[in-house]
Specification:
This protein has ten helices and ten strands. By secondary structure, it is α/β, with parallel strands linked by helices. The chain has an eight-stranded parallel barrel, surrounded by four helices. A two-stranded antiparallel ribbon has the order 5-7.
């Protein structure tokens, strides 16, 4: 595949997956992420995936050469420790894996959850253990989980995402050895921490990277800007990744579908 063909679009959860796949096919997009929540009328909710509907999704992806992934919600706290809610977090991940199997989705972007500053140790332990169990389940199902490095919160925020900086990401990947757990490298999130994009690529194993998520940012707070509106050096990003042997897909996550199509063209030009 050319670089352009490897740059996909995150459809989110605002439209039925069938509609999103038809748009992708019409615009030559071969990689898409989709969320199982948030669509009007919950059209993509897990309970909506009947056997015939799931079969139709698989057939459409095969016919149009589309690689499908799912993207779970970062609002769901995978680091949950409270009774009842901890069980729900467990079931949430299991459900995503089960639906991915039905739809033929090859990967699921997952998150480490969040903590409340004073309970960091308990939360990160719960998160790692829960994702380790999910990875074992995903391995049996033939699905790959991709842990996303999430965004840094403001300095005085009480709530903070786990796996947001290099040290925390390395903790997850050193403790979870399952081949079913890979990395979703979100470039604009890496741009928010001192180590930056370069630091992540220097220290992390790109061979575990299954998706590079792309949006621009000024590096001050969470933003998903169109390429060129922020300060990320995408030419250098492509040089480091492609030169380092990365041959996976990229996933655009900013603006509208039309914005992402235009952004794909700009990124291809920036890569030379």
């Amino acid at each position: 595949m050319t670089l352009k063909e490897r740059i996909g679009v995150d459809l989110g959860g605002k439209r039925a997956l069938e509609e999103g796949l038809a748009w992708a096919a019409a615009n030559g997009v071969h990689y898409v992420d989709a969320c199982l929540e948030g669509a009007p009328g919950h059209l993509n909710a897990p309970a909506k995936w009947t056997v015939p509907r799931a079969a139709a999704i698989r057939a459409a992806c095969e016919r149009d050469g589309i690689h499908l992934g799912l993207h779970s919600a970062s609002a769901v706290n995978v680091a949950e420790t409270s009774p009842l809610l901890a069980d729900a977090a467990e079931q949430y991940l299991a459900t995503y894996i089960d639906v991915a199997t039905r739809l033929g989705a090859a990967w699921i972007v997952v998150h480490g959850g969040y903590h409340f500053t004073g309970d960091f140790a308990a939360r990160i332990t719960a998160s790692i253990e829960r994702l380790e169990r999910a990875a074992e389940r995903a391995e049996r199902a033939g699905v790959r989980l991709l842990l996303e490095n999430l965004n840094r919160e403001p300095e005085h925020a009480e709530i903070r995402y786990l796996a947001h900086n290099l040290a925390e990401c390395r903790e997850y990947f050193s403790r979870i050895q399952s081949p079913a757990l890979g990395w979703a490298f979100t470039v604009n999130h890496a741009h928010l921490v001192p180590e930056g994009v370069e630091g992540f690529l220097d220290a992390m194993d790109v061979r575990r990277c299954g998706e590079v998520r792309v949006a621009d940012s000024h590096g001050k707070w969470e933003e998903h800007l169109k390429p060129g509106e922020g300060t990320i050096d995408f030419a250098r990003m492509f040089k480091r990744l492609e030169g380092g042997g990365y041959r996976g897909h990229y996933m655009l996550a900013f603006g509208s579908l039309d914005d992402m199509l235009a952004g794909r063209e700009r990124l291809v030009r920036s890569a030379g």
